[in-house]
Design goal:
5-stranded parallel beta sheet; two-stranded antiparallel sheet; 5 helices
């Protein structure tokens, strides 16, 4: 922005223009969490597509993903992994694409996680009537006090439609 200041002199008026430097845009801080120990990832067909990238990024990841899986079997899957001693120190949950997300289901999964770090991934499906509500429930139920954070896949995916197959849900890249 600029402003003008008039300065009186003996015979004339001089106008001085002062230009203020624009403030640099605020950058969002990226929080980096060190992953100590194995990671358990449970999901649906979207996670099956993401499995190669997850494996490259998290070499100690164990992935349990299935086509058409909803959030409903999530607690049972986590409980079986916990009882067998195969539940990792960190857990990634991507189970909303096929519905079944509720505060109760999320609460059960967080109870089974027993303080482990949990990353809950929002769903992206433009034609699924339950996606927006399920994502809202995730954001409300997955709280830091329970060592749970939300990874907002829906927003990121929405900004990059070229990443997806014709269905708009499964990635081609």
């Amino acid at each position: 922005s600029s402003s003008s200041v008039a300065s009186p002199t003996s015979s004339s008026v001089t106008t001085t223009t002062v230009r203020h430097r624009a403030r640099p845009p605020r950058t969002r801080r990226l929080t980096v969490h060190v992953v100590n120990g194995p990671v358990t990832a449970i999901g649906d067909s979207v996670m099956i597509g993401a499995a190669p990238a997850l494996g490259r990024t998290l070499p100690a990841v164990m992935i349990d993903a299935a086509v058409d899986r909803s959030a409903l079997p999530g607690p049972e899957i986590l409980l079986a992994l916990a009882r067998s001693g195969r539940l990792g120190a960190s857990i990634v949950i991507e189970l909303g694409t096929n519905g079944g997300v509720s505060a109760s289901v999320i609460g059960q999964m967080l109870d089974i996680a027993a303080g482990r770090r949990v990353v809950m991934v929002t769903s992206h499906c433009g034609y699924c009537s339950w996606t927006a509500e399920g994502n809202s429930v995730m954001r409300a139920a997955c709280i830091r006090k329970r060592n749970c954070i939300v990874a907002d896949w829906d927003t990121l995916a929405g900004a990059h439609p070229a990443w997806f197959a014709q269905d708009g849900v499964h990635m081609t890249v």
